Amino acid sequence: MKSPTRDRILDAALELVRSGGTVSLESTARRVGLSKPGVMYHFRTKEALMLALVDRVLDGWDAEMSRRLSAPAEQVPAEERIRAYLDWCLSGEVDETDLVMLTDQRLRATLKKHWAERIAPWVDLPEDLPVERRTRLLAVRLLADGVWFADAADVFAPGPEERARVRAVADELLAG
Predict the structure, then answer these.
(1) N or C: which end of the chain has fewer CB atoms below 10 A?
(2) Start-to-end CA span in the chain (Å)
(3) pLDDT digit string (tens) for 75-91?
(4) Closest-CA residue to 52 (of 13, 109, 103, 94)
């Protein structure tokens, strides 16, 4: 169910993540200016809210990566999807809300599983790829993962020159 109130709730919860706050139904309700039952009308449980946050973040990722493709993701080869993932991760547009699946210890397994299911169409490699090609694509994905995590965690995030060098290495791997 999409609604302006639901979107405001998700925006408030992501702002809590971004500011280092704890996301709960109550803290989100306070942040958005609703009662806890008002939030629960849209998200019956904290788990439902947190899963919706993962979806919100990954919906943005999907849109950004899809813009980098020549056709819908399911119609392009793995190389093009991996390149779109790399380009997105190197864009520097990620932030700490991208780590939402790690923000709640009690729900971490559920959130990571949901994250993996959502990101798999972009980074999962076909089993029938030749081993060397598969390994090169995996290496590019892992380079992208590293840049993404450094940016999202704001720890040793690469600068523009370093990003260009990482891209050059990735391009060599993709060309091989």
Answers:
(1) N
(2) 46
(3) 999 999 999 999 999 99
(4) 13
